Amino acid sequence: MSLDNIQLSYETCSVLFNTHLIRDAKSDIQENCSEKIAIDCLGENQQKALFIVNEPAYKFLPDQEMELLTKLVSACKLSLADIALVNFSSNKCNYHQLNEQFHPEKILIFGVTNAELGLPFDIPAFQVQKFQQQLYLTAPSLTEFLNNTSLKKELWAALQKIFF
Fold first, then answer.
1. Once rounded to an integer, what is the mean pLDDT over residues 25-43?
2. How confident is residue 75, by pLDDT bands cut at 50, 70 and 90?
3. Residue 31, class by beta-carbon neighbours within 10 Å (0-12 exposed, 13-18 middle, 19+ buried)?
4. Domains plus CATH for the chain?
5. 32-36, 108-112, 155-159: which has the minimum mean pLDDT?
6. What is the per-residue pLDDT for 17?
7. CA angle 62–66–70, rounded 5-degree value
8. Which are the contacts of 133, defined by CB distance < 8 A and separation ≥ 6?
9. CB neighbour class for 73 (10 Å; exposed up to 12, middle 13-18, buried from 19)
10. The pairing of beta strand 128-131 with beta strand 106-110
């Protein structure tokens, strides 16, 4: 065995070089992933339920979509004080930043792809996914639900898995 080709495991490197090589690389990654920003939201997040929407022309949602969201939240036996509503297009944040500010247990994503949020997975719409002790649900934008009863039924079935 030649000394030129020694391969060290991550654990060994962290023990041998914990003050310079490993920690510096880790802290650089963490700083890049979770740069602190103030994320504007509606609601008080009392039940740790984060609703993410994507409405470029509005601060949060247009009236019809806000009415739909309010009905959905009420049907889940919650109020707007129980959730945090974030408009992705106004904040351009990633899931690390959202976790850091809101510490959500349930994350419902409407009209935003998992890739846009920087999530390391992709799931089909209306499928509940557990990741790092959190429940994720992706769905089309709320606009698509306004006149579509079948989409509303699919969403309601998924919401029951999360909230009941």
1. 64
2. very high
3. exposed
4. 9-38 (no CATH), 49-163 (3.40.470.10)
5. 32-36
6. 62
7. 175
8. 105
9. buried
10. unpaired
Mean predicted confidence (pLDDT) in 47-72? 96
Q: Where is 120: in which H helix or E strand?
A: none
Rounded average pLDDT over 131-155: 96
Extract the tokens encoding 63.
């009236």
> Which two structure tokens, joined as six digits, stand for 58?
């509005």
Q: Which amino acid is at 55?
A: E
User: What is the token pair recorded at 99?
Assistant: 């976790």
* CB 84, CB 45: distance < 8 Å: yes
Q: How far apart are CA 110 and CA 42, in angstroms?
A: 15
Tokens 């009941």 belong to residue: 164
Place of tokens 């504007």: 40
d(CA 158, CA 123): 13
CB atoms within 10 A of CB 131: 14
